Amino acid sequence: MERSWTINGRFLAQPLTGVQRYALEITRALDELLVAVPASGDRPRVELLVPPDTEIPPLKAISSRVVAPMRGHLWEQTALAARVRGGLLSFCNTGPLSIRKQILCIHDVNTRTYPQSYSLPFRLLYGTLLPVLGRTVATVATVSHYSAGELIRYRICRPEKIVVIPNGHEHTASWTPAHSQRTREVAGPDTIVVIGSAIPHKNTRLIIGMAERLAAVGLRIAVVGMSDARVFKATRRQVPAGNVVWLGRLSDQELAALLQDCLCLAFPSFTEGFGLPPLEAMAAGCPVVVSNRASLPEICAGAALYASPDDAEAWFDRFMRVRNMPALRETMIRRGRVRASNYQWKVSAGRYLEAMAVLDGLSTASREPVRSAIG
């Protein structure tokens, strides 16, 4: 039989954040896996449908097509839905309500666990849409066992629908470290990198609030990232001390250079569905100090130092340990690279192929039970 699947390409019309990175890299990895499979009745025919005025990545086995002069949720619910043949892969939290043969990746339920980070319209949209999709679609993917547990806790979907398909790290291998003037000026062994902007659940205010104390011991802070005002409610930034630099969005090359030329990455989030920046940092050979909450202990395991997102004293202690104990720092770098290697886009793409085969009746479901952490 001919197996037909469509990829929801709405993500290509959106800014590249962690969720869109996931969709892009899974699509690329799926394409590589399909190229390696001989054309036969068992190999799915996959098509990427995208809104107009989007940049389509080069693909070999997956065809692509631009459809309809519209964007956003309207495009997804109408133009995309009308052109799906067979099954649908939606990698970015939402998909058409009318498509039941759909594998939908819901990355997190942060709008419920930390609502103060999001605008009221966005909370209402996701609060309504996600439970309906969770009941409607055939399979719900998510990126960590922590997120799977939250989907169950908030009754978004039943446990038997869930498959955990995490992020990967291989995209960092294509980053060629290259400082710009602004990253070169702030980089160095006394620089703590913070990724996450001023969105409340990212908790950068904890590190910024330590600025004067860090300055007293010769440390500075480089904050990477910016928030989307249409979605997030950012806290007002306090006037920072002279040792804090807000870098905004960086290119992959700039970020790679900064991560390789700093003391460590600090990631003090209250909640994360996965936490891609610490994984990228570990893959790049940068020590990470992360929150002991949500998915982060699951993702980083024994490769990171941990502190409570409520305890500035604990964060200061961890920074001092990384700076004053070179052997510890080298151990963290080594363990981080090993830990990051456990997360591979091709493996995750293979799990999507397995889930697709189940829905096509070619295989039986064999899902790992949802649990709190992975080995």
From TrEMBL:
Q: Which UniProt keywords apply?
A: Transferase
Quote the InterPro entries the UniProt record gives. Answer: Glyco_trans_1
> Which is a Pfam family this sequence falls into?
Glycos_transf_1
**What residue stretch is flagged as signal peptide?**
none
Instruction: Output the Gene3D superfamilies linked to this UniProt entry.
Output: Glycogen Phosphorylase B (3.40.50.2000)
Q: Does the keyword Cell division apply?
A: no
Does Transferase appear among the keywords?
yes
> Per its record, how is this protein called by name?
Glycosyltransferase involved in cell wall biosynthesis
* Species of the source: Sinorhizobium kostiense
Native organism taxonomy: Bacteria, Pseudomonadati, Pseudomonadota, Alphaproteobacteria, Hyphomicrobiales
